[in-house]
Write a structure and sequence with these properties.
The chain is an alpha/beta fold. The protein has helices spanning 30-40, 62-73, 90-94, 98-101, 108-116, 166-175, 189-198; strands at 3-7, 13-17, 22-23, 50-56, 77-83, 122-126, 129-134, 147-152, 176-184, 201-206, 213-218. The chain has one domain (29-218): Rossmann fold, CATH 3.40.50. Helix 1 (30-40) crosses helix 2. The protein is globular.
Amino acid sequence: MEREIIQTLDGSTTIHIKEWNESYHSKHGAIQEAQHVFIKNGLALFENKNVSILEIGFGTGLNAFITFIESKRLQQKIDYTGVEAYPISSEELTSMNYVEELKAHDYSSIFNTMHQSAWGEEINIENSFVLTKRKQLFQEIDDIEKYDLIYFDAFGYRVQPELWSTEIFQKMYTSLKNNGVLVTYAARGVVKRSMIEVGFSVEKLAGPPGKREMFRARKL
């Protein structure tokens, strides 16, 4: 499918898939969305703790990069696993302006390392941040009680409803430790019902700019 680089409303870039009219991040602001959904309503719950994270959709690496930056402020040690079936190209990577927009020039080499590191290998990005990228379909995930936090950042239900199924959320539930948390930008009723069916307790929260609501689910 044809992909193009676009600029979102907060100035940060993302990738847009023309056939689907779907983007990797919100057109209202890629960075704003990541900060609100995954950091404010996810990572920040674990301040001053060691956190094991699973990201569903590594994509442009934005969520991983922001997590690295924010984990320093939150005094966390992070074990980060990013799952992606279709990695972005090196050309697309060079068009992502996250280092500039986040004013994170001191960490530009970190962002590059995240993308250049080998798939399937555990990489020490820094002493407090370990990254493992897995090139696999979400349906192939089979972790058991491994993660404290899941960033569920798959393409939207409108274009890939199979990624928001009861089957997938059962895998997410099984992957989480007890009291683990899943956060996602989504807020569809059908998604909530699938989450509840597998055992999640689901709460509706205010969404990021341009989106009224989002979900946070807990494994009780």
